[in-house]
Specification:
The structure holds two protein chains of two kinds. Chain A is mainly alpha-helical. Chain A is built from nine helices and no strands. Chain A has one domain: Serine Threonine Protein Phosphatase 5, Tetratricopeptide repeat, CATH 1.25.40.340. Chain B has two domains: about 170 residues, Rossmann fold; about 120 residues, Hypothetical Protein Tm841, Chain: A,domain 3 (2-Layer Sandwich), CATH 3.30.1180. In chain B, the strands form three sheets. Chain B has a six-stranded mixed beta sheet, sandwiched between helices. Chain B has a six-stranded mixed beta sheet with strand order 9-8-7-12-10-11. Chain B has a two-stranded antiparallel ribbon with strand order 13-14. The chains are: A mainly alpha, B alpha/beta.
Amino acid sequence: MDAAFFRDWMTAAAAVVETQRDHLTQLDAAIGDADHGINMARGFSAVTAALEQKDTPTPGSVLTLAGSTLISKVGGASGPLYGMALRSAGKALGDTSDADLHALAGALEAALAGVQKLGAAREGEKTMVDALAPAVSALAKALAEGAPGDGALSALAAAALAGAQSTISMQALKGRASYLGPRSVGHEDPGAASMALILGALRDVAARQAP
Amino acid sequence: MKKLINSPDTVVTDALAGVAAAHPSLAVDIENKVITRAGGPTLGKVGLVSGGGSGHEPLHGGFVGFGMLDAACPGEVFTSPVPDQMLAATKAVDGGVGVLHVVKNYTGDVLNFQMAAELAADDGIEVTPVVVNDDVAVQDSLYTAGRRGVGATVFVEKIAGALAERGAPLADVAAVAAEVNERSRSFGVALSSCTIPAAGKPTFDLGDDEIELGIGIHGEPGRRRAPLAPAAELAAAAMDAIHADQPLDGDLLVMVNGMGGTPLIELYLVYNEVHKYVTGKGARIARNLVGNYITSLEMQGFSVSVCRLSDTLEQLWDAPVDTPALRWGR
């Protein structure tokens, strides 16, 4: 997976958060302040613009530019958290011009570690971590079992989606939804939903490129 | 929902252009979204920076001026501003003796201000943050993101701003800000939600005979839904929550704040109830504010903020201030 692949991933992520913008907004209206869809769409639109304007010769540079752009453009909690996730992933990829699945797995682990350090969320607190953590585990497991590329990324995306769905029954312990206490139960977390969309975009880009 | 906007995407920039045109005392950088005093930084004075989502006007831009803030960073509607803005603001107000960041306790605000403070430190500017978390509707526990920063933000900005204007050092300005936060408690009640321009419909629905108790300032649902009741009962619900958390005692600064969509006649009516309640507990309202100070677009409702005053805090409250939203003593 070269820099072009990662740029395609970011472009696909931008496309999916744009088409799902109203859905994300609705999720955020139920347990937040109704701006997650708008913020993510704005942020990722800025990411695609930045990727068009600046040179990103390596996979790592694509993700660090994306992360920095999100920090500069999104605001709220999502900006720093997603920004940290992508910057950490980009840093973990280093200077390589071609990342294999193991490198990608390591980058996503670094993304998770970065998000958890910044936001202090653990699994089960109804956040983006509840989509990212199971996805990281599923990818690691698939790789350990010797699954082929597309199978491994399918497992990643499926786990993220299942993780996002699992937030429905959780009570929010972090972020704006936590102010609602028990009233946050019964609603999917918008950050987990957007994380599942972004990881789904990764699987889709890989599937399109499969021979 | 009808709004006075040109397009959802340009609400903030269009409004900032209006602020710039209306207030020559302010310098409004529309592109970078930073509002500062037109006269520039005061050398030798601690600079005060705050910021937050747009939609809470006059907070914070309306409080930029002599005796209060040096800079305000407006984000997108209900979205905390980004580190770049806060860094630009911090540099713009640096008078050489450090900068105070007044940070409302929301995850986004805290994270973005944290990043900005680190960047400022890299540039050799000393920054001390003070987090405002006066809302009693949220239990402050390990199981939430902590209490929200609401009405007391106005108190902190005024009182810390007054001390900074006297030339006090950063540590003292930060200490008085923290003290005001510690002495303040707030609670809000909503009769309606509000509509974010880009969302196009209210964030949540309230029936004709329903109210929401324990609201924040971002249009989100509160602690619980309840039936509409006379103002006396709603005011008592708010004051009960405040009194239970920090008993009303001595001389108080009380703000009855409109959420943006409540007529002044109703705010004064609520103030009457609050005044009776406070007097009934044997305390005294020494200073007050009644009006729209920290709003939530067109939400109908009110919040009450109470600060236990000391002689020093009262003097700092009385100190001259010259901003678009608060002006006395000059």
